[in-house]
Amino acid sequence: MRLIDVTNSFANLVSQQLAHTDAQTVHVYSLGQTTVIFTKAQNHSELLLTNEKRNIQKAEVAFAIEKLTDLNSDQVSVIYGPKLAEISIPQTQSA
């Protein structure tokens, strides 16, 4: 697996996130067919994984967490939904 930074391709999403949330930085990555949105605010960070065709796999979540934070998937709580997964990380624990 490989994360590819595709933030420049999502300029509208990034500008909307920065304008309407407490986010300080927003990065968008491609993990094959899965899109990973990493948002960092002053008090927390969030990872959102989405895939239009299938549900998110646990291996994808673990890979994204380990590459984008100093944590592993056992240290965070993951909320799974249809074709998405969300991870919220308090700033005291984030990278």
TrEMBL record:
InterPro entries: DUF1827, LMG18311-like_sf. Pfam families: DUF1827. This is DUF1827 domain-containing protein.
